[in-house]
Specification:
Shape: globular
Structural class: alpha+beta
Helix content: 25-40%
Distance between the termini: 73 Å
Strand content: 15-25%
Number of strands: 28
Radius of gyration: 29 Å
Length: 619
């Protein structure tokens, strides 16, 4: 009896601790992204929130940003309903979040009004698309030529819209049956136009394609000013987010591939190496940020000043815009009032010698004489007397450092992890002409954490050591050392070659010690040791003399590696042409070497190309 009571007590305690997620504890973005239990989106609570969302929908189709629809008081909801005639917003994921929420609720309830509201918002996005492609912060436009009318990458606006349209076009999951064929095709076409304008907006840095500004004009596609502290420049933050998105595009054109390659190279060349941004409490007891030394890290400015002739033209255009606008800003201190035109604030504070350095500005309605004033120091520096005799800052202050991300490591993961993985995928894709390819990666995994890993195409990976499935960085899969892994192929599949792409997860060199019946030394197929958080991504390719059927095995030596395996199967419907490479310094190097495989002796053709990729062909 006592045991029964104890079991009941423990079970009751367990059940009490397992509570459904409370919507009020989450942000609106989390609600819209599906953080609640799937069944909750069909609940009365979800329907009540959806009704409120519909009641506050703008008459032109969208919603305003930064509204926590699931937490509004009666008076706050009434204020939104009374503002329905105002413009819609796409900034800070506004409208796209509400559409995602309504789609989830409709899928669970099939109540038509939720789908109708979704469709109204989708039509607004169609109308808001610019003639050249892309979107601005608001619809309808202000029409005054200000930053709200520009092509806007700021706060991931365009990428949020493009991701949504792509998912609607695919018509799966939350968006199954949410749009008809014509609307889905419109979504595809809008995404294609947006990619085109993204390529057009890529900044030409004196003959080198660089990255992007937070916003661009719609005629020449030049970097443009945003708010008074968002100066024309190249944005480390927005460019990193944009690259992350662009690298998800399936079958990118050659032009888009080159845009990505050049943007990554430019950002890598303009990093401030060995640095990181740290939050701290300063001597005044204020929350603050500072730049610290950190090995393996790097930082970029949110706004990086352009240089050379490109910089001269960009800033001359910006200054002339301010001059033609003719606005003045005044500041009173010590009984004296100083009045400045925006033109002279910007043009006199700009220093062309500071090209490619981070630039800052202070945006404070109480200090309007600082609008558009170029600052070049992140941490506190002494004030200086300007050309009018007024004492002005030469650096950011703690409030601006904390309230706005002027410095950050945004491109670091893109450069170190996302780009190498994308580059490998594109190289494999480009090399796969005449082949069907099957990638065994985190993205194509179809199983849980058991020791049998399932992947798209019916391919499985098993091991006899009970090693469970786990992901590494950049969609790689973790494979332990000294474990035989068997790749099981579905009936009829014949594999002609296999790429092993990835990195060593430890600080000692790892290598492929076995593949398909052949053993190798620690110097044949090396994955270099990791240096702190820095990984070296390597590709090793095996080409079989005869197609592999049923299965093949492999084993790693020394340490665990994080890998994507790409299997190539000749496509019988396409002829395969082997290109003839001219004899030049840029050509691949070919040599023959012996290879031991148990008691068998075989020949191997070793190919090392100019990118350091090693390809070995079994003979």
């Amino acid at each position: 009896m006592k045991k029964l009571l104890l079991i009941c007590f423990l079970l009751g305690g367990f059940l009490t601790g397992v509570k459904a997620q409370n919507a009020a504890d989450l942000k609106w973005s989390a609600i819209c992204s599906g953080k609640m239990n799937a069944e909750w989106y069909g609940s009365d609570e979800a329907k009540t929130i959806a009704d409120n969302v519909i009641s506050g929908q703008k008459t032109n189709g969208g919603w305003m940003k930064n509204i926590e629809w699931h937490k509004l008081t009666a008076s706050e909801l009434k204020a939104q309903q009374n503002a329905r005639s105002e413009h819609s917003c796409l900034d800070n994921a506004a409208t796209t979040m509400e559409m995602r929420f309504l789609a989830k609720v409709w899928q669970k309830t099939q109540i038509e009004k939720y789908k109708e509201s979704f469709t109204k918002a989708l039509n607004m996005i169609f109308k808001a698309e610019k003639g050249c492609g892309g979107w601005s912060q608001y619809w309808p436009l202000d029409g005054n030529g200000g930053y709200r009318d520009y092509i806007t990458f700021n706060d991931d606006l365009i990428t949020n819209v493009m991701r949504l349209l792509q998912e609607i076009a695919a018509g799966k999951g939350d968006f199954a049956n949410m749009a008809d064929d014509a609307a889905r095709q419109h979504c595809k076409d809008a995404v294609a136009r947006a990619i085109d304008v993204i390529i057009k907006c890529q900044v030409d840095d004196n003959g080198t394609k660089a990255a992007w500004c937070a916003q661009h004009d719609t005629v020449k596609f030049q970097p443009a000013v945003g708010r008074p502290h968002e100066l024309p420049s190249i944005s480390g933050s927005e460019s990193a987010s944009l690259l992350s998105y662009l690298m998800t595009i399936e079958n990118p054109s050659e032009e888009l591939q080159q845009a990505i390659h050049s943007a990554v190279a430019w950002l890598d060349a303009h990093k401030i190496d060995g640095k990181a941004v740290e939050d701290f409490t300063n001597a005044n007891g204020e929350k603050d940020r500072r730049v610290i030394d950190k090995a393996g890290s790097a930082v970029w400015g949110r706004f990086i000043q352009l240089g050379g002739e490109t910089g001269r033209k960009t800033y001359e255009s910006f200054f002339n815009m301010l001059k033609s606008r003719g606005k003045s800003r005044s500041y009173t201190t010590g009984g004296k009032t100083y009045t400045y035109t925006e033109y002279e604030i910007a043009s006199k504070s700009y220093d062309p010698e500071k090209e490619y350095q981070p630039i800052y500005a202070i945006y404070d309605d109480n200090l309007q004489h600082l609008y558009y004033r170029f600052l070049y120091t992140f941490e506190d520096a002494p004030e200086a007397t300007d050309w009018k005799g007024c004492q002005v800052p030469t650096s950011l202050n703690a409030l601006r450092r904390v309230n706005y991300q002027f410095m950050g490591s945004w491109p670091l993961n893109v450069i170190k992890n996302e780009y190498p993985a994308w580059k490998q995928r594109i190289e494999a894709q480009n090399a796969s002409q005449g082949y069907k390819t099957y990638a065994l990666s985190g993205e194509t995994n179809t199983s849980g954490s058991s020791s049998e890993y399932g992947f798209n195409g019916g391919i499985k990976v098993t091991n006899g050591n009970g090693k469970g499935y786990a992901n590494g960085k950049s969609s790689t899969v973790k494979y332990s050392a000294n474990v035989i892994y068997t790749v099981q192929l579905p009936a009829g599949m014949k594999i002609d070659k296999v790429d092993f792409y990835g990195y060593d997860n430890y600080d000692t060199d790892a290598y492929i010690s076995h593949f398909n019946g052949s053993d190798f030394s620690a110097t044949d197929y090396v994955f270099p040791a990791k240096d702190g958080d820095n990984m070296t991504y390597v590709t090793h390719t095996f080409t079989a003399a005869t197609p592999i059927e049923n299965s093949f095995s492999f084993k790693l030596g020394s340490k665990q590696c994080c890998l994507i395996l790409t299997l190539y199967e000749k496509d019988s419907s396409a002829g395969i042409t082997i290109p003839v490479v001219a004899n030049s310094a840029a050509s691949s190097v070919y040599d023959l070497q012996g290879m031991r495989a148990g008691n068998n002796s075989r020949g191997m053709l070793v190919i090392r190309d100019t990118n350091g990729v090693t390809r070995k062909i079994m003979r």
